[in-house]
Amino acid sequence: MLTTNNPHISNDSVPESFSTPTTCSPPSLKGPNILKIGTLNCRGLRKTAEPATSNQFIRCLRTQSFDLLAMSSYWSHYCGIVCFSPTLRLSEPSYDHTQRCLTVTVSHLDDLFDPVSVTVIYAPSDYRSRQAFLIPSQLNLPDSPSRSILLGGFNYSYTTTISPNNFLTAPASWLQYLKDNFQDSYVCIILQLQHSVLITCQVHQPTFHRGSSSSRIDYMFLSNDITMSCLAPSYSFIQPVWSDHMLLSITLDLPPMSRDDDTAPSTPNVGKGIWRAHPHLAVPYL
């Protein structure tokens, strides 16, 4: 059986179907341009869990040091996004007509990186409803997305093979849209680290477990122009009482905000010698 030292994970509750390694833990990264984003389908927890269970769940999430976390049933009936960082600003969300898809623009308060678009999706589990839902134009997605992150619960196993001979669990137009404009964040690392056995093992890791069944139905996609910013994708198994889905996350190292010389901000209104001041000089009686 797979074991773990994570205090939020019970070794007895880790499914036997998990293949090692179950997580590809990112290094501890911190910096002004570092953005850590997670996604978790925990639909129903808020309605059914005891307060103590909810509090434990919240404490667990806080230990992950997320800047942004996409979750189900928080802003709308189906999805939402939580910002943990005081240095980030989120635009007003835009929804599709079903409220299963929301998009926000994330910017830095000090303009340390160009804004990025984050779209959260929780697709229907029913085949017919999912086919009707996953239409790019219906979800108000741009034809040529840039600096975009697309994540959430897709409720189907993604494939890049589009053929009339294959049974498609999502519309062909949707699959083509993803293929043309996005990369699975867990594949991005393989593109950068060509022969990493550890990362290769992660690509097909199931993200959903219920009883003896498991499947990979949760994803994090990056638009083609920011795939090289992906540093560390991670899977984390959490307590089954919280969710039967895994917690997915990625860490991005976003380049500094691009500026023309004419639009570059002026020097901050802080004297260059202030940082040298002796702290004792600040007391009133001196």
Notes on the protein architecture:
With 286 residues, this protein is of the alpha+beta class. It has a single domain (11-253), classed as Deoxyribonuclease I, Chain A (4-Layer Sandwich), CATH 3.60.10.10. Helix content is 16%, strand content 23%. It has helices spanning 45-48, 51-62, 127-133, 172-181, 185-192, 197-202, and strands at 34-40, 68-71, 80-83, 88-90, 94-95, 101-108, 116-122, 148-153, 182-184, 208-210, 213-215, 218-223, 234-236, 247-253. The strands form 3 sheets. Strands 4, 5, 6, 7, 8, 9 and 12 form a 7-stranded mixed β-sheet that branches. β5 and β6 form a beta hairpin. The chain is globular, with a radius of gyration of 21 Å. The termini are far apart. Residues 1-30 are annotated as: Disordered.
